[in-house]
Structures are given as structure tokens and as C-alpha cells.
Amino acid sequence: METSFLYMDEFYSDHRTFKHQTAKNRPEYVALTGLLVPAGIRSEFRDRFYRAVGEALDLPANTIPPMPQIHGSSLFPDRPDDVKLRFLEKIAKACVDLELSVVRSGYYWTPELKRMFPTPKDTLGPCFLNMLWFATSLKSKEVWPVIETDQSAQQDRAFAGAIQTLDYVTTNVSRLSLSVDNSNLGEVLYCSKRSIYGTVVDLVSYLLDARFLTQKGFAVTEYKENLARIAARLNPIILRDEIIEMAFEGPPDHVPGRGVA
């Protein structure tokens, strides 16, 4: 059975951090973006990633400065936009060439959902469950979920705790009693901000948000438009991209009581 690693990135949209004034009413959502990485492509992907970093930094000959932390929202702050875009194009092309897969699942953080999940981070549980349904559909692969650690008990409970509960119940009760077949799931692993795959899934998440804004018709900066165009290059490897609006309904007329169901 082929082993793959599902690197995940948490994303929280917040109109207060969006610089373009016309998009202040953008819908809030919480999402997990996943990058499914086959174990066997490590060497080539590493070489392509670090060559792209070196070209973006314009390294002098025989000089190796400290490796910067790379994030989509603060990408090479001292470099011009065209350099940033070329770097992202190279990363997107490497993902497609090496047949990585992208999956994103999220929820609009509506007032109704906020009553169920008081903070955006609380909403990660349903997002992760959707990721597990995706991972367990890949019966020919053993999938190990990987998340960048924030060293919080809440994150550990939402991710590693969910897998632990699945394993515990499966062993002591029955897999048939669960909605997730965990037969091909490994345990949750954690990475730091120095993981290149953790970095790349952050970049992919950033690109997909730019595409989301343009698809929803928001006026965005020219830079964001270019990000959306790069995101389109990932289309051949995007297996799922969904932001779900949870439906809430009251009880039927013949049922006493009030509230959401």
C-alpha cells in the first residue's frame, strides 16, 4: 500500500485583515486545506522548492543566508511582486508535475454556526472530519494526517484526539459502528513552520482564498488577481474544494419546542 502524507493548513478569513476597502463585507469562513504528498517524491520536490527559494532571494554566488520562514500572506517582504508571483508559479508547477493532490473543506462562519462553535478554531472539528472522509476514500493509500503545531491542547484534541478516539472505538467496539473507516489512516503527525510541505500547503491555501474572492465577484488588487490565476493552474490536482453553508431549520410544525435542529 502506498504511503502518503496529508499536510493540512488552517485558514480563517477575516474581513478586518483584508486591505482592499471594497471587500470589507466578504463572508467569513473557516477551512482546512490539505496537500496529499506521496512519500516517494521527497527528493525531487525538495530540490525544486529550494531552487525556487534561492532564485526568489537572488542569492549571491557561494553565499547562503539564513533560510527565511515563508508564508503566503507575508511572502518575501523585501522582494517585488513579480518575484513573488514567479516563485508561486514554480511551486504550483512542481505540485502539478509531481502529482500532489489538493483538497479543501470549510464552512461559512455564519451567525447560526457561531452559536454552535463560539470561536473559529472550534469549527476545525467538522472540517477535519471531512478531511478524514476524503482520506479514507483513498483505499490504495495509507494516509498520515500532518498539521502544523500551535502547541495548544485544543488543537491536539481536535486532530490527534479525533484519530485516537477512532482507533480506540474501532478496536473495542466495531468499525461498522463508525461513519469513518479508519483502516488506511495513520496517526496525526505534527510539523513546524520549517516544514517545506507545511509551507507549501500554506501557500496553496493562500492561492485558493484569492481564487475564492475573485469567483465571488469581489474587487481585489491586481496582485490578488494574479494569485487567482496561479491558483487556476492547480486545477488538474484539486480533488475537492468546498466551502459549505450549514443549513439550520426549526422543528416540524407537529413537534413541540423551538430552536435549531
TrEMBL record:
Name the UniProt record assigns to this protein: DUF3800 domain-containing protein
